[in-house]
Structures are given as C-alpha cells and as structure tokens.
Amino acid sequence: MATRPLNVLFLCTHNAARSILAEALLNALGGGRVRAYSAGSSPRPNQQPNPLGLTALREAGIATEGLRSKSWDEFAVPGAPEMDLIITVCDSAAGEACPVWPGHPATAHWGYPDPSAGDAPDAVKLEAFRQTLQRLRARLLRLLELPLEQLDRDTLQQRVRALAHEEGAA
C-alpha cells in the first residue's frame, strides 16, 4: 500500500459503541502499522461514546482519551485522512449509501450485534461490550497478520472480507 500506516475507518450508525471499540483496539494493537478511525452515518446530536464501552476498553488496558463520536462526513472532505480500508461493523450502516470516499478504499463488512441495545441492566450490557471487544480483538489480530504493506487494494479487500467468515473471528 505505502510507507505510511494503513488508514482504517470503522463505520456504524451512531459511532457510539462497536466502531469506537474497533478504533481504540486497532490503534492499541497496530504497533504503528495502522491508524484507525471511527465514524457514524448519523450520530445523534451531542452523541458521545457509550460509557460502558469506554469501561470495557479501560478494563482491557486500552486508552480512551480522545475518543469521540463523529459523522462520516468528516472523512469525505478535502484534507481528511485518505482511507485505505473502510469496515462497517453494524448491519444498518452496511446497508446505507456511503459517501464517495477519496482514493476509493477497500471495503468490508464485519457485523456485530449492538452491545448497548435493549433494556438489560448495565452489568449485562457491560458483559456484552466485553464480548464484542474480544470478538473484535480476534478479528483485528488476524487483520494484523496480513502483509498489509504489500497488498494492493483489491487483494486487501478480498482478504479483509474473508476475515468476516473465518471461524473463531466472529
């Protein structure tokens, strides 16, 4: 791809849970080979990262400073970081019409249930966030095993899409 880190954007509808977890986790695991970002197709007004997600990240020893919910529009304007890979992590965002991304990045969908959904007590939801974080970690570690620096766009897309179907990464 290039001598710079691989830029990866994780998308979800509100950018409050799964995409935030993926951004923080990949930045922690990536060792400088990648730079992860997250955004939402339609974050609510004054949307913030889910506090239970931030708790799960902190419990796992992952920094949460600077994490914020934001619109995907921030990444489709001139001067925004050019993405190499865009991964949707919720089914509703995967079905939406995305902006035209500068550079035409590789794309993939890794669906995860929303750990914040429903009326369960916070303790149950926190466990759902922990489980989502574990599932993301398994898949992101597989991503980092790839020779990212050597893959062209089409091969990267093919390999990352294949990770969505691997046993143990879901």
Automatic annotation (TrEMBL):
UniProt entry tagged with the keyword Nucleotide-binding: no
Protein name (database record): Glutaredoxin arsenate reductase
BP GO annotations: response to arsenic-containing substance
Enzyme class: oxidoreductase
Keyword Oxidoreductase attached: yes
A UniProt-annotated Pfam family: LMWPc
Alphabetized UniProt keyword annotations: Arsenical resistance, Oxidoreductase
SMART domains to which the protein is assigned, alphabetical: LMWPc (SM00226)
Top-level lineage group: Bacteria
